[in-house]
Structures are given as structure tokens and as C-alpha cells.
Amino acid sequence: MYLEKLAECDVVIWAMHADSRCTDHEARCLNRLLDDAAPEEGRRIVAKLTYVLTKADLLTPPPWIFDMRGDRGAFVPSLALAGRMELKAAHVEQMVVEPWGDLLGAATYNAGDFALRDERLDFDRQTVTYRGHFSREVCERYTAAHPEHAEVFSRLRDNHRVLPCSALFRFNLAALMVNVVNKLGPTAIFRFQRVLDDVAELAGVPVAAMREYGNFLVWDGIRGARAFDLGRLPI
User: Fold this and answer.
1) Would the CA dihedral through 168, 174, 180, 181 be positive or negative?
2) Which among 15, 18, 30, 97 could bridge 56 via Cys, Cβ 3.0 to 4.6 Å?
3) Above 70 in pLDDT, residue 207?
4) Are residues 110 and 128 in the same domain?
């Protein structure tokens, strides 16, 4: 049933808890599904997958930072917490994404100025594609060689990037939306462009709602100073 649903969907969000250690279980679940699929069907399915680490707000300590600007603000992780997220995302990518390198491919829209081609990288008037796992190392290598196309390579990297998110903190929801729309192809990009132009609003959290949460530092983004530390409060 799951395999059938995956084949029918345009985009699939494979969600894993950010505070879970069950990476092996997630890998086994995906393996079991794709082992039952024909190679071409498996290739189509993995191309649809967007990998997300949910409930990133549960990753503590250290506390999150709330960048307060008037009556609204945005949650951002501290440097130490961002480092933990990066390590967790890299581990999940290694365990869940990388093993499917033979089936993997990355694609993004072509704004019209991309014209590079090699044994893995290809393009046409609307799309830029890559055959294989577009890892961080691959992205850095292409970006160093062709910095003028850094944005295109970053979008290709998003195909296989594991993204920590929090619906409660509205953290990375804009990045998730851009990632999903990007997978739908150039037609969808133009259709959703107006929404994508306003994605910053997705990160906005009213201060009144923020006060009900806990374990974060409030930073006054206008004055550039620490406002107050709520410490650990019950959520």
C-alpha cells in the first residue's frame, strides 16, 4: 500500500523525529519499500522524497534564540545547537539517502543562464539535472569551479539535504516549501512564485505566542541586545 501511494504522489516528505536515535529503523523501512519496486519505479520514487527532521525544537540544551523585532520574531538555533543539527542531518543523509546512490538524481529549474554539462550534469532550457547523490562535497566542488552558478548548485543540493524543521517554532518551514516546490519542476516554480516571494512570513512568530514556550534566549534584533532569558519554562 505504501509503495502504491509513493508512486501516486508528486512529492513525498519523509519525516523523522530530530531527537530520535532510530536512524537504522528509518533506513530499513525505506529499504523494504524500494526493494519491492522495479529499478525505474524506485528511481522515480527516490526523486520525490524530501527528508525532514521534525520537532527540532526538542533539541536542547543549549537554548534556542528568539530574534525579536517589534511584536514578532523568528527562532534560530544557537551555534552549538546548529552544529548538533548539522551532525544529525549528515548522519541521517549517510544512513538513509546515500545508500541509494545508483537510483538517486537531482533536478532544479533552469532560469535560462545555466549551460554546463559533464558525465553526470545535464541541462535543457527548463531544467538542470544531476545523476547520482548530490552530496555536500559534490556541491562544494561544483560551486568552487563555477561560483556564478552557486544558487543552482544549492538548489540541486536541496534534493538530498536532510532539513531540520519545527512547526511549533516555524523553523525552516520556508526552506521546506522552497524545496518541495523546486521538486515539482519549472511550471510549479512560476505558479508558486508569488508565495515563494513571501516565504519569510512563514518564519514569523508573534511575541505573545513565543512567551508561552520555553528554553530560549530572546534577542532584540532592532536594538542588537539581549532582551531576557526565559530559561526553562513548561511548554
Assistant:
1) positive
2) 18
3) yes
4) yes
